[in-house]
Amino acid sequence: MVTKAIDMSPTTKPGVILELISYNREKYNKIDSTDPDELLTHLQPDQVNWVNLDGLGNIDIIEKLQAYFCLHPLLVDDVLADQRPKAEEYDDYLFFTLKMLYKIDGTSIDYEQISFVLGSNFLVSFQEKEGDLFEGFRERIRLDLGKVRKKHADYLLYRLIDIIVDNYYNVLDRVGDIIDEIEETVYENPSNETFYKIQSLKKELIYLRKALYPLRDALSKIVKGESEYVKEENIRYFSDVYDHVSHIIDSMDTFKDLTSSLMDIHINAMNTKMNEVMKVLTVISTIFMPLTFIVGVYGMNFKFMPELDWKYGYYVVWGIMGLIFISMMIYFRKKKWF
Amino acid sequence: MVTKAIDMSPTTKPGVILELISYNREKYNKIDSTDPDELLTHLQPDQVNWVNLDGLGNIDIIEKLQAYFCLHPLLVDDVLADQRPKAEEYDDYLFFTLKMLYKIDGTSIDYEQISFVLGSNFLVSFQEKEGDLFEGFRERIRLDLGKVRKKHADYLLYRLIDIIVDNYYNVLDRVGDIIDEIEETVYENPSNETFYKIQSLKKELIYLRKALYPLRDALSKIVKGESEYVKEENIRYFSDVYDHVSHIIDSMDTFKDLTSSLMDIHINAMNTKMNEVMKVLTVISTIFMPLTFIVGVYGMNFKFMPELDWKYGYYVVWGIMGLIFISMMIYFRKKKWF
Amino acid sequence: MVTKAIDMSPTTKPGVILELISYNREKYNKIDSTDPDELLTHLQPDQVNWVNLDGLGNIDIIEKLQAYFCLHPLLVDDVLADQRPKAEEYDDYLFFTLKMLYKIDGTSIDYEQISFVLGSNFLVSFQEKEGDLFEGFRERIRLDLGKVRKKHADYLLYRLIDIIVDNYYNVLDRVGDIIDEIEETVYENPSNETFYKIQSLKKELIYLRKALYPLRDALSKIVKGESEYVKEENIRYFSDVYDHVSHIIDSMDTFKDLTSSLMDIHINAMNTKMNEVMKVLTVISTIFMPLTFIVGVYGMNFKFMPELDWKYGYYVVWGIMGLIFISMMIYFRKKKWF
Amino acid sequence: MVTKAIDMSPTTKPGVILELISYNREKYNKIDSTDPDELLTHLQPDQVNWVNLDGLGNIDIIEKLQAYFCLHPLLVDDVLADQRPKAEEYDDYLFFTLKMLYKIDGTSIDYEQISFVLGSNFLVSFQEKEGDLFEGFRERIRLDLGKVRKKHADYLLYRLIDIIVDNYYNVLDRVGDIIDEIEETVYENPSNETFYKIQSLKKELIYLRKALYPLRDALSKIVKGESEYVKEENIRYFSDVYDHVSHIIDSMDTFKDLTSSLMDIHINAMNTKMNEVMKVLTVISTIFMPLTFIVGVYGMNFKFMPELDWKYGYYVVWGIMGLIFISMMIYFRKKKWF
Amino acid sequence: MVTKAIDMSPTTKPGVILELISYNREKYNKIDSTDPDELLTHLQPDQVNWVNLDGLGNIDIIEKLQAYFCLHPLLVDDVLADQRPKAEEYDDYLFFTLKMLYKIDGTSIDYEQISFVLGSNFLVSFQEKEGDLFEGFRERIRLDLGKVRKKHADYLLYRLIDIIVDNYYNVLDRVGDIIDEIEETVYENPSNETFYKIQSLKKELIYLRKALYPLRDALSKIVKGESEYVKEENIRYFSDVYDHVSHIIDSMDTFKDLTSSLMDIHINAMNTKMNEVMKVLTVISTIFMPLTFIVGVYGMNFKFMPELDWKYGYYVVWGIMGLIFISMMIYFRKKKWF
């Protein structure tokens, strides 16, 4: 999608949901609400506040968040419109946007843009649709598993990005499985179905690439320490995500090469089949055309055709035709045509 | 077009129009004129002055503007000739030139070069033809909507470039639509018409690329703060346009890959069709050549052909031919030739 | 040509011509000579001295110029041998070499290497052959048109390079025209002639690229202010030539893509034609092979063939053959084979 | 493999083996153990301690190593998951991971990830599977051959990486041999078998590239002196490995080009064969179709066909057919169709 | 070759030859020897000493040279193994290695690795085989032609590299000649022989590229002044060689494009031929199949076939067949099939 306008059907409007999770080492609180005014009163200055918005259809809510967090108008534009992944440092916060991938029905891939605003003690996340990959992680925060309750908002951002990037591996694994699957059949059976599978793989890789290359650039900005909202001690975590993205890009390039190799194999198998067809045609024609000519000769009605009166003429003709047939077969066998 | 000379038909000469819009927070004034001397007297030193020239055919007007704004001869050359998009800092102003895209009749794309000279309190814009994308924006200035009346000339330049770049999205959306449209038909029907559509898409993307890559470079110059005529506080706006152009370039590359994927599908569909044709030919030949040979045998006029005198000879021949026919059909069915 | 030795036939030797143009705001003098000793006495220390040498066959003259201007032996080697375009700063002068393009008979392109040595008050130019693109410009110097008489030797160098680069546009325009011309015919008529035209275009673009990319690098060296022999104030002029070369390279890349697109169209048209031929063959074979088989059946000479004795047997056979013919036609029409 | 989880079958669990080799100029000690607690007590602070772990299935052991050497959790994640080759400097050690290549049965290639943690007096190596390339080198340490006993842990790391990289040469040599082998047969015999061999070569090169490019980047980090755990004096050794990896990459690129050249040759040979088949078909058809037509003419049963009654009609027809045959042969011979 | 081990047959062992040339402005001395101990006593501290070794089979000699000049073990490894061209600065000398190209029998190309160690007053050169390109240059030193006797060891290194690089031009010229030669024939005669020539050209260019790109990098290191063993005043000379290598790389890329253009022409010529063959087949079939059908009709043996009894039936059939023939010819002529 290149459209700047938000791509969203009106039925998702009731799905607009605001959620606040605030925590520190000791405390944990979670509030769901559709009223931003009420929700924002619960922000705790001495805790990490994660405000999550599902659904971008309610401009009213977004404007209230914008006013509360002093969000720059350009930032809000970027949240609402389809954007390439990027990290952008503003005076009071860091803006980070990327694509979240879902598998739908286990076959096609769905993209959702997710944007983050990271301040000193808050993280606002904007999602296009309800439902995300973070359910298990929310539970880990509540139960105080892992380090997240001991860390600040930048670590929270790292964890969320890491979960999204980890999900890319799932998508790539599926691509790898399909490649293996195609490879087993393409040599034997270069069907159109195989060809379409290869094409749809290529398409998925094209879209993945569009999501991943800018993401790597965005992460590299943070890794270089250009943001003051990511603490020195936590840069290593973002560096790790950066390595994962690089690894995924490598794998993607590898898959791209394998896919184009599959294309070559498909084309070669098609050509081999065609060659085979042509050989059958040629063998049949080359054998039967001379024979048909011969029998045609003795089907002529000339009055004076001495052979016709020979007693064994008929058998002689069969003999000649048999010789032609056998020598043809030897010739084609030598040429390895069948 | 590579020609340096201006590409313009004489009939557009009467279309040469000078327009001055000067404004600040309180005041707004708009003057249309064909007399530069008179128009230039209305420039307000304490306001933002936007001088717009439609049509480059009247050298006289251009020379008067050149004299008034002390434009460098090389700059004027660049305005008059086809130029690659660029930003160039002169002592007294910033020069910026890019391509404006129009859709004509909703199908083909028209390019127009637009050049800007940005000074501390003025912006001069040079357009090749009458009519532009700014009509709605002029109205917004007049009605004091948005921030433009509160800002300086550099913000005006940003808005104009942003409007032009936004229009690129429209062009790309159309390319995306055509790709979707072709994709639906190309698997089934690899017609030449489809092929020509793919080719014209490729051509549009080739020209787009030529317009966009240098534009990104030009914007990056401004984003890096190399120009003193774009204020620190407004660089973020140009940075936003820069991101849009990067996004468009990403999409363009994606579309390029999709287009070449469409080509592969088209070629494969062509080959599949060809294969099908060859198979029909081979099946028909392989079945009827032996049969025709057999009936030819019994069309021979030898005096001594015992089979001819058999009572059921004719039926035996039909039986043999039936057997050949059926075994051929089984053979081809096994080979999945039809 | 990769050869380091000078590519020159002995007949051009008499064409070796030395020319000196010295000028400043007030004075202008032009001397033609074949005797370097005599000519060099006319150099004016307080004027711009342009020494031009046509023809590199007379080593004697070159050695005298080398001695007079203290030219480095490597520099002289570079002048005499085929060189990639480059700018090289020596202690006492700037060395610049590039390719000059000519159209010969309006069709093929001829390359000539031209080298410049720019000192503080002189410019020496070395050309391989007599005749160049500067005739009109010499006249402009004489008549004191433009700024050249008011400027120094570096501006003279700029003007000469600018004239050479401008001529590249002519060559590219011709390429563009041929592309348009081919595009009109290639869809309908994929002849070999078209194919050869496309190939020769590709070849011209390959050679152009070899001349242009290093030229851009050479100019960028000057634009970055690395040479003390090009004054700060004149760098903008070289920067303008740099932009032109970048523009030409962009156009060249565009043309390269268009050319390979033409190739695709040609190949597709060839394949379409081939498909058409194969369809004709298949249609004809598929219709007439069964028919020929049928008439063969009733050409058999069996004694007992009841159909032969039927009164309307002949007409029945015609009827059956007519049915087969019509159903085949309907089948092929449905498959859109013709 | 893109999976982050460790790819390991449970049967390798018993293969988990811990090994400690500690040495300096005078002393040498080697301990095998499955109990990390016991093993770690044998570390000698004044010697080089090489701790090697074969098999990553026992999380318990890894956690004890992690605790002892204060390994960062991200580092342990990297050891356990499939990782792109990289060098990463931590506060107390340098982390280095790369791929080890094995030839299995002399044909297919097996990859194993090996990770190193280099501290001031220790080197920990993590291998996925039992068995490695270092057996001969362990013996060299024991016998005090070469410089390793006189050097520190960073030299030990260099030697291990060098051994792994040297083994890449073996893999590449094999690729080169197969290319030579294919080249000898592909011109004559473009079989599918050849094609599959080429494809499997391409696949091996694709995977090799994925292992090698990041390895070069990782080594370049060390060569630039970014790690404090590699001493200045030993950087030259890593620089040498870096050169080897560059050389291997060059060779790999060369092989890639040669492989795609083999593909071209294969395709051309296929096409040549196809052409040959088509020519045989065309020659046979072109000769026998007119002849069969002629004999068909004289097989017609018209009452009034004067030729049939001619005495030498039959011989005249043979003569005409002979003429047609000979002129066809001359025609095809001239066209060089056989 | 990727093998690290030296590729050398034992028969070259007797060919191991040591040679010392020492010179300054006044003196010149040349000694051939197979005993390094004796030879090394003749080194003159106040002269330039060029020690040349032909053949790397005698490890003894190499070890003595290593001891005398304090060569680093890694350097000796690099001399003995196949290496990518590189320049490497050690404490006491500069190491430079590159490939020397020979034409063997004027057709195939042979590569030899040559390595240099440049100290303050000596240059050691290691060659794999006897015989090199320097014979003429040795004579120039002896006769004190050119500047070499007036310069130091770094100038000697420049001259030797320059001679090697100059020889690359010869190889490239040959490639250019073959391209021209192929181009003349490929349009008319797309034989397999032409195709193999194109492929062998491609192969040569692939190997050349592998030798040249790293050489340019190595030279650029010296040009940037990174070596203290090349004096400031002589860097210009190396810069000149650098330009030559860049020029050769440009030409190589050009040749690569021309070669792939030749491939396109070859493929097109093949396809055109194939099309021609198919057209002949189709024309013949389309003309004779209907005709054969017609004569088959009147070869049927029905008792009641009125046409057979017509007096001019036979001639009418000929007339109809003539009409069919002529209209087919007109049809194909219109379609430009022949």
Automatic annotation (TrEMBL), chains A, B, C, D, E:
<dbReference type="GO" id="GO:0000287">
    <property type="term" value="F:magnesium ion binding"/>
</dbReference>
<feature type="transmembrane region" description="Helical">
    <location>
        <begin position="280"/>
        <end position="300"/>
    </location>
</feature>
<dbReference type="GO" id="GO:0015087">
    <property type="term" value="F:cobalt ion transmembrane transporter activity"/>
</dbReference>
<dbReference type="InterPro" id="IPR002523">
    <property type="entry name" value="MgTranspt_CorA/ZnTranspt_ZntB"/>
</dbReference>
<dbReference type="InterPro" id="IPR045863">
    <property type="entry name" value="CorA_TM1_TM2"/>
</dbReference>
<dbReference type="InterPro" id="IPR004488">
    <property type="entry name" value="Mg/Co-transport_prot_CorA"/>
</dbReference>
<feature type="transmembrane region" description="Helical">
    <location>
        <begin position="312"/>
        <end position="332"/>
    </location>
</feature>
<keyword id="KW-1003">Cell membrane</keyword>
<comment type="function">
    <text>Mediates influx of magnesium ions.</text>
</comment>
<dbReference type="GO" id="GO:0005886">
    <property type="term" value="C:plasma membrane"/>
</dbReference>
<comment type="similarity">
    <text>Belongs to the CorA metal ion transporter (MIT) (TC 1.A.35) family.</text>
</comment>
<keyword id="KW-0406">Ion transport</keyword>
<dbReference type="Pfam" id="PF01544">
    <property type="entry name" value="CorA"/>
</dbReference>
<keyword id="KW-1133">Transmembrane helix</keyword>
<dbReference type="GO" id="GO:0015095">
    <property type="term" value="F:magnesium ion transmembrane transporter activity"/>
</dbReference>
<keyword id="KW-0460">Magnesium</keyword>
<keyword id="KW-0812">Transmembrane</keyword>
<keyword id="KW-0472">Membrane</keyword>
<keyword id="KW-0813">Transport</keyword>
<dbReference type="InterPro" id="IPR045861">
    <property type="entry name" value="CorA_cytoplasmic_dom"/>
</dbReference>
<protein>
    <recommendedName>
        <fullName>Magnesium transport protein CorA</fullName>
    </recommendedName>
</protein>
<dbReference type="GO" id="GO:0050897">
    <property type="term" value="F:cobalt ion binding"/>
</dbReference>
